Amino acid sequence: MSKKKSKQPASQTQVQGPRYFAADPSGPFSRPEVVALVAVVLIAWAVQTFFLNYTVDDAFISFRYSRNLAQGFGLVFNPGERVEGYTNFLWTLLCSVPFLLGIDVLWFSKVVLALLSAGAITVFVLFLRRQQPRPVWWPVYAAGLVLGLNTSFTLYAVNGIETMLFSLLLLLSLLLSSREFEQGGWLSAIPWALLFFTRPDGALFFGLAWLARLVWGRRDRSFVIWTAAFAVPALALVAFRLAYFGHLFPNTYYVKGAGSLSYRVSGWGVRYFRDIFRVPANWFYMLAPVLAGLFTWKRLSRFGRLMLVLPYIYLGYVLYIGGDVNFPHFRFLLHVLPVMALAGFLPLVAVPAGKESRSALKLTALVLITGVMVVLQLGHTRSVWKSMNEAPEQPKFRYGSLVPLATHISIYPEIADSLRRVVAPAQTVVMQDVGAIPYYSGVNTIDIIGLVNGDLAHYFYSRGYSDYLRGRLPESVVQEVDAFARDYVIEQRKADFVLYHVDSGRADDLRYSFHWHNLAYDPRFAELYEPVMLFSYPGTGRDDHLLFRRKAGQ
Predict the structure, then answer these.
(1) Which of 23, 204, 400, 410 is the most exposed, having the fewest neighbouring CB atoms within 10 Å of its CB?
(2) Does pLDDT of 353 surpass 50?
(3) Bridge partners of residue 500, in order along the sequence
């Protein structure tokens, strides 16, 4: 009698061994693993301390909102003006804590970001631990070291903005979702909601995870709870934005999101990705999901396949919006860089049991790649550190004192101090650098770019205008916008002071001042305003800002 062959599920007949990025338990940490994790975090922190003097100027926008909130003025940049000039709601709320407690916000932000960077490394390690056999534990921590020494990861662990919080929450959301995708559950909705509260971009990531679980994952009662647990707080935040600020999106969207798709993509979007690939180490991260797919696609869980395509969908969105205009060290790339690193190390770390020769080959490749990446990234980090310390506007690094200086532009505190002395409380100052200068001076500010000014931002958007696309737009649009901006400053707002940024480096030549709509060459400006103060970098002969004051009686 012939025996019938038992049928096995397709997943077992097609794939032997574990499925990568499935909901496999990883077990407790051994003592060597704890030591390795602590060592990786401490090494990352040690490199971060070399940039303690670096705080990106935009961080002070959020700090000013946080301070005004703590002082009872509400979420406003200028008291009485409801403009959502930040895109990091949760970070702005968090940074109000030091003002309530009387703690220096710079130290607070840097300590919190350092802890968040440690959290990101830890979650990254937890993700990879699921993919390897227990006897071979160290490759995971080699991968964690590579992530912790990435230049963007290092800089955004100290520079005062929310990027590290976003990266950690995205990793945590994906880690919890990988279990819920197969086993059900809803707790990942908490970090998903916090991700959306951190930046609006979080909605895109949750939407992709939601769609994947709807089509391929577990759709039980917990799926409905999971959806509601994200949707209720997310909709509440949107409702608050509409009620408090009167607009669906943050103000920066209207400043940077204008212009046609072709202008945004072919202009700053292409430039952003060109600059990414100019950093040699970034090639590994950008190509990692593709290579991981080639080597591991059949072994990937469906959620794992989502993990591979997720970064590219997001980077496509980044290209669509025109990159991250003028923001240093690839902030948007860092949002998904840990996920790309997971993909890059997956084929090397995930060694199926029973294949010792192949495991040895993979471990050898892992050692080589880790060594090359550490050298490349530390070399790039050193180059960035050196350029910062050689730039005249950058405060010099002072190792040993461990005092984070006020801002990465050394002259800004001096400018702020001068404004405090000459500007009366009811007067207004027009400027383009709306971070540290208005934060430290406390003056009422008119932002000529429009980031914290709703009137200019929404007019620019209605005309399809963005400063960053100025050279690509029809001349008629540029002239119309320039006329409106000049009228707004001179006639409508009657600004008391104008802090003109001297892009040319010479106070007698203001033609190249990028954001100023040729304001200095308007006949009315020459008639109504007079220069009163010049700010220059000592020993360089380079002028930076020129302060104009409206003439008495004008």
Answers:
(1) 400
(2) no
(3) 546
